[in-house]
């Protein structure tokens, strides 16, 4: 076609120009929404990061009690309490029953209100989808589901079965509608960071006809293929049972894993995970937020059919869940007891430590929450730490708020250190009076203060516990420490430079976007009268100084020198 000479082209009309401008603006707006960076997980060689607004995010969280967020009115006085505790993320339930009160009829008013109010408080949300299961039973499913047992089969009087085809389809549809709505209202804001799919899945073994038929059928080829591909990485619970049967690649569940309750646990894990994976995938098709599941802890080290739930995403069967639910990106643990071994158990095959529930106050230890937060972040590079029941009135002014405030300032230093070996967390336990942690060119020896015995009622509660902290190596010869109630001695591991010189210990605070010195510590407030590289975090004594913080950030600068010749000769 011969091009029309420019001189003879008709000028565009004003209406045409307006339409073209409107089209361009709409296109630019669409591209801007598409380009807005939604929350996502990024996996590196030794770390997993949650990216929010283009940068890594550390979840300093609290989980609301089950019913607090069921109305906006009840939540209103809770928001200032959450702000005062210096959280950056709130874990809050969303009930299928409230979202879809009648089949096919959805009410998003509560979700809209929670998202809007969180933005006003400058808080992010992680939503807990209480769909088919909550703590193994089905109290959050809609009435129209629970009153049709022929259509939505039961595992027990209280729980729906994972073998209900229509149950999975209905749950997935509702979840997809929720995610589609979140995309509409939150795509440009990223107030909602992640979604928990169901809650603490698992209960008694399913002995319904549907389950028994599936138990007698061959093990799915997808699970067998996963076992073969990851044979050297499997948890012992699964590897040993499969190995005892000759690592068969076909057969029934009893053929492949042997008879007994453990095989029923593995079998139930596969079918729960398949169900949950289907729900998660439907949601991701609408709006691909990061998704996770949480586990109720086992009572002991291994599964016990007498009191442990069958089939949940517990540590022994993580491999089964990984095989059956690829749409789930994180497997989390509600970590209340045996905190240290349970934390380690979930660092499996690249799964990051993610703790949506823990205790702010455990038994008679009021500092359990902050101690475990620092341990999880420092020792296991945790993506998230959250305590349950954060809206409890008794937690006003709790030390957790002070710890979260300091962690907010330290987060830009913490995030680059994850996976580098330059960060450690610790807390006092009955069996350890001291611990040693390796850093690059240094080691830190943490000695826990001698605390009064638990039965010593003469000692104030606040002084009976609270030896815990976080150590960051922020430079070749510089450390930042957030700690309470422990002495920390630094030693050089460089054989050519074994002598340390203390160049100053500062108590610092984060204000106006930078670290400022609050006071220069010396004398008996620094071990060895300031000559040794020892930190003595508060409380220094029962007689606290006016203005002294219950937990603080200390910065230590050192120099490593060659040992004197006479010492080197020895």
SSE map:
Elements: H1 14-35, E1 40-43, E2 48-52, E3 55-57, E4 59-63, H2 72-75, H3 78-84, E5 89-95, H4 96-99, H5 109-120, E6 124-134, H6 143-146, H7 165-186, E7 192-199, H8 209-215, H9 221-229, H10 236-244, H11 253-257, H12 261-286, E8 291-296, H13 318-324, E9 330-334, H14 339-345, E10 354-355, H15 368-380, E11 384-388, H16 399-417, E12 423-427, E13 434-438, E14 442-448, H17 461-464, E15 468-475, E16 478-484, E17 486-492, E18 499-511, E19 514-521, E20 534-535, E21 552-561, H18 565-569
Parallel strand pairs: 4-5, 4-11, 5-6, 6-7, 7-8, 8-9, 10-11
Antiparallel strand pairs: 1-2, 2-3, 12-15, 13-14, 14-17, 15-16, 16-21, 17-20, 18-19, 18-21
Please describe what this structure looks like.
The chain is of the alpha/beta class. It has helices at residues 14-35, 72-75, 78-84, 96-99, 109-120, 143-146, 165-186, 209-215, 221-229, 236-244, 253-257, 261-286, 318-324, 339-345, 368-380, 399-417, 461-464, 565-569, and strands spanning 40-43, 48-52, 55-57, 59-63, 89-95, 124-134, 192-199, 291-296, 330-334, 354-355, 384-388, 423-427, 434-438, 442-448, 468-475, 478-484, 486-492, 499-511, 514-521, 534-535, 552-561. The strands form 4 sheets. The chain has an 8-stranded parallel sheet with strand order 9-8-7-6-5-4-11-10. Strand 8 (291-296), helix 13 (318-324) and strand 9 form a beta-alpha-beta unit. Helix 7 (165-186) runs parallel beside helix 12 (261-286), helix 12 crosses helix 13 (318-324) and helix 15 packs parallel to helix 16. The longest helix is centred in the middle third of the chain and has 26 residues, at 261-286. The protein is globular. The termini are far apart.
């Amino acid at each position: 076609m011969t091009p029309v000479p420019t001189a003879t082209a008709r000028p565009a009309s004003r209406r045409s120009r307006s339409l073209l401008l409107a089209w361009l603006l709409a296109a630019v707006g669409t591209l801007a929404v598409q380009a807005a960076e939604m929350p996502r997980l990024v996996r590196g060689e030794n770390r997993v990061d949650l990216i929010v607004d283009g940068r890594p995010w550390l979840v300093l969280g609290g989980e609301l009690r089950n019913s607090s967020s069921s109305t906006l009115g009840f939540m209103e006085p809770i928001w200032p309490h959450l702000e005062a505790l210096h959280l950056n993320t709130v874990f809050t339930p969303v009930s299928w029953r409230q979202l879809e009160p009648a089949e096919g009829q959805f009410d998003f008013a509560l979700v809209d209100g929670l998202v809007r109010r969180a933005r006003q408080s400058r808080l992010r949300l992680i939503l807990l989808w209480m769909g088919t299961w909550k703590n193994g039973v089905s109290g959050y499913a809609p009435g129209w589901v629970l009153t049709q047992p022929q259509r939505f089969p039961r595992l027990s009087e209280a729980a729906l079965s994972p073998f209900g085809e229509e149950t999975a389809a209905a749950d997935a549809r509702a979840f997809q509608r929720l995610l589609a709505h979140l995309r509409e209202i939150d795509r440009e804001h990223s107030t909602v960071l992640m979604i928990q799919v169901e809650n603490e899945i698992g209960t008694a073994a399913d002995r319904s006809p549907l389950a028994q038929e599936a138990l007698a059928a061959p093990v799915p080829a997808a699970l067998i293929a996963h076992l073969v591909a990851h044979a050297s990485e499997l948890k012992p619970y699964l590897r040993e049972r499969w190995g005892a049967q000759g690592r068969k690649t076909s057969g029934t569940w009893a053929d492949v894993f042997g008879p007994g309750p453990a095989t029923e646990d593995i079998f139930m894990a596969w079918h729960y995970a398949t169900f949950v994976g289907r729900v998660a995938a439907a949601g991701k098709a609408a709006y691909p937020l990061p998704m996770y599941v949480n586990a109720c802890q086992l009572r002991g080290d291994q599964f016990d059919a007498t009191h442990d739930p069958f089939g949940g995403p517990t540590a022994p069967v993580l491999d089964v869940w990984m095989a059956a639910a690829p749409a789930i990106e994180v497997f989390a643990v509600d970590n209340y007891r045996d905190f240290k071994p349970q934390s380690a158990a979930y660092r499996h095959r690249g799964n990051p430590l993610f703790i949506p529930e823990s205790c702010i106050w455990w038994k008679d230890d009021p500092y359990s929450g902050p101690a475990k937060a620092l341990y999880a972040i420092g020792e296991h590079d945790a993506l998230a730490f959250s305590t349950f029941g954060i809206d409890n009135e008794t937690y006003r002014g709790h030390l957790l708020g002070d710890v979260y405030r300091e962690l907010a300032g330290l987060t830009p230093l913490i995030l680059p250190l994850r996976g580098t070996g330059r960060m450690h967390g610790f807390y006092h336990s009955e069996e350890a009076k001291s611990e040693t942690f390796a850093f690059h060119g240094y080691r830190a020896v943490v000695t826990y203060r001698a605390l009064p015995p638990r039965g010593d009622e003469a000692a104030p509660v606040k002084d009976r516990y609270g030896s815990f902290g976080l150590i960051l190596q922020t430079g070749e010869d510089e450390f930042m420490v957030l700690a309470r109630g422990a002495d920390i001695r630094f030693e050089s591991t460089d054989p050519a430079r074994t002598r340390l010189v203390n160049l100053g210990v500062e108590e610092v605070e984060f204000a106006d976007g930078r670290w400022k010195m609050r006071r220069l510590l010396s004398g008996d407030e620094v071990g060895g009268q300031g000559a040794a590289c020892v930190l003595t975090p508060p409380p220094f004594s029962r007689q606290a100084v006016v203005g002294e913080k219950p937990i603080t950030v200390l910065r230590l600068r050192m120099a490593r020198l060659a040992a004197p010749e006479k010492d080197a000769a020895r």
